[in-house]
Amino acid sequence: MIKRNLCFIVATLPFVIGVVLSVLLSSNILPNYVFVGNYDVDLAWILSRICFGISLLAVAGLVVSMRIRQPVIQNLDQLADRSSRDQRKFLQRLDHELKNPITILRLSVVNLQHSPNLTEVQKASLARIEQQTERLQKLMIDLRWLSEVEECDIERTLVDPCDVLQQAIEDRSPVWRDRDIKLRIQEMPGGISHVMGDRDLLVAAMRNLVDNALKFTERHGQIELRATDDGHLVTLEVADTGIGIPDTEMPYIFDELYRGFQAKQVPGSGLGLTLVKRIITLHEGTLQVRSRAGHGTVVTIQLPLVPRL
Amino acid sequence: MHRTMRRIELAKAKLMIVDDEADLLAELKPLLKRSGYDVATSSDGQEALELIKQTSPDLIILDVLLPHLDGREIVRQLRKASDWTPVILLTKVGAPAERAMSLQEGADDYLNKPFDPFELVARIHAILRRTLHSELPISSFRRLTSADLLIDRQTRQAWRGGDLLALTARAFGVLEFLMLHPGEIVTRDRLLDEVWGWTYAVESRAVDIRIAELRKLLQDDAADPHVIETVIGLGYRFIGEVKASD
What we know:
The structure holds two protein chains of two kinds. Chain A is α+β, with helices and mostly antiparallel strands. Helix content of chain A is 55%, strand content 18%. Chain A contains seven helices and nine strands, in the order αββααβααββαββαββ. Chain A has helices spanning 2-26, 43-113, 120-148, 161-169, 173-178, 199-216, 272-282, and strands at 33-36, 39-42, 157-159, 182-187, 194-197, 222-229, 233-240, 286-292, 296-306. In chain A, the strands form two sheets. In chain A, strands 3, 4, 5, 6, 7, 8 and 9 form a seven-stranded mixed sheet that branches. In chain A, strand 6 (222-229) and strand 7 form a beta hairpin. The radius of gyration of chain A is 31 Å and the shape is elongated. Chain B is of the alpha/beta class. Chain B is 37% helix and 20% strand. Chain B contains eight helices and 13 strands. In chain B, helix 6 packs across helix 7 (188-196) and helix 6 packs across helix 8. Chain A binds chain B through residues 95-96, 98-100, 102-104, 106-108, 110-111, 114, 137, 140-142, 144-145, 148-149, 151-153, 155, 157, 167, 170-171, 200-201, 203-205, 207-208, 275, 279, and chain B through 21, 23-24, 27-28, 30-31, 34, 92, 94-96, 113-118, 168-170, 196-203, 205-206.
């Protein structure tokens, strides 16, 4: 909207210049009539008409381009909606097709494990099949949640963001202590405003980010969680001194199942950031990731706050 | 068909499994037989309904997507004929509203595919134990009471000693689920799946927070509970006696 208004202002500028010039020339503050060859030319008249013409053309061009752009933008929005719906339908179809085979695999393994006279090699193979089937099942459940999250019921209550951060790191202390990682929460003095949202989902989102930071930060590294507000938005950040994300991978980090080259060395499903983004979008917030390979990553979440009374 | 009350001998209970996936039936049957049940199978909805009428199983495990007659319609027809044979729906039931509808239509329980085989066996056992003393499933009733606690499942309200309790929607969901499964150990994961609708994103600590909310409002001491008991390492159990009414 601001950009459009600026364009209109710029388009009408020649008109304004034309008027000013006409006034200056007509009142003889600037020389008005000039000789061109044998002719006495009325400069005020010419310059003002040129400026009016430029302005008229600019404004007409803007109006035409807006008329053309409007349906294009609407089409793009519709395409984006359709793409999102198609993706959800695909995930639902995939879920539908996978559920029976995985169920049968699990049942088959359990039945085989009851067979008499199994050799140790056979038992080990069955154990591996069982483990991989459970892994497939977990992936399926994760994908199922991805397809449902936008339609799920969220509980909207007043949530204290600092409490969310505290909850996010609960139960994780053995991990960071074992690897001698310094993890701290930095809060704004005087506390920060609450947000309206689903506490469980917000904790899940922050916990996901903390888990990522812990996964990719090496021994003796640092992780900091920050909570601030500026009177309009609450900002929650997770900053680490981990391995970072290469520039070439940044465009894909929110894609489902995408795992960067170094991330593949660490267990994970590739769905974490996608889910975090969906949760934050459900809360009408924004999510931004800044990273430098070899130095660390900062993930910033902003949520609309509930004004303090 | 009217089901008379009779004592079901758990070890010899007759089960009917209905699913159109032949391989699933082939693997599920031996598992349930090893658990001591007598098992019949069918892969067609219409055929299954006829077999149920003829053989009167003690419990039916029913997929929803079936040829000729879907699983939910089978449940509706059974309940319409006052046949209260317990039914476990073996399928994905998505949103909480859909789950509530499945229970209101008369299913006793449901299990999302893919499931843990031992979880299915545990559910069968729990339902058969519950139906020893009752004809109608507790899930078909609107109001549940236990001592001075009353919950209305339709209005989603709860009272204690006549005073309305200020419960969050999820805390009510947890209380409702526990009261629908009295005496049964309910794991945190199961509560997440049933009440929250997901197990992925939210950890089981969210369940503990809601239980704490309930205990505070019900003035139930965790160390000496009379309503909700913690079963260490497993989950929670509603230990009060539950009565159902409309």
